[in-house]
Specification:
97 residues, globular, single chain, mainly alpha
């Protein structure tokens, strides 16, 4: 099994810079390659312990100018997260009534 820790941590940094809190679901959605769940969880824990650590892979590949397609993908991810949160809040509110 290949170690994808650096790749996963790079995704975490990208998500954080775009204003999203990295989660297992967002990492899986953003990754171009299939990732084993235990590796995602491990790398996410490592990243959360020091989110400001420089990620060489991420710094080397990221550009300051995003294409419209990249922005669209990021916005779609944000909408998905918000829709899920809204659904959970709605269920919680209905259950309490």
């Amino acid at each position: 099994m290949r170690d994808n820790t650096q790749h996963i941590m790079s995704i975490c940094s990208q998500l954080a810079r775009s204003g999203l809190q990295p989660t297992v679901a967002l990492i899986k959605a953003k990754s171009a390659i299939p990732l084993p769940m235990p590796q995602i969880i491990h790398a996410l824990k490592v990243w959360r312990s020091n989110p400001d650590a420089p990620q060489e892979e991420c710094i080397a590949t990221e550009t300051s100018h995003k294409t419209q397609e990249q922005r669209l993908v990021e916005l779609e991810l944000r909408v998905a997260v918000l829709e899920k949160a809204l659904s959970q809040l709605t269920k919680l509110t209905v259950t309490q009534e």
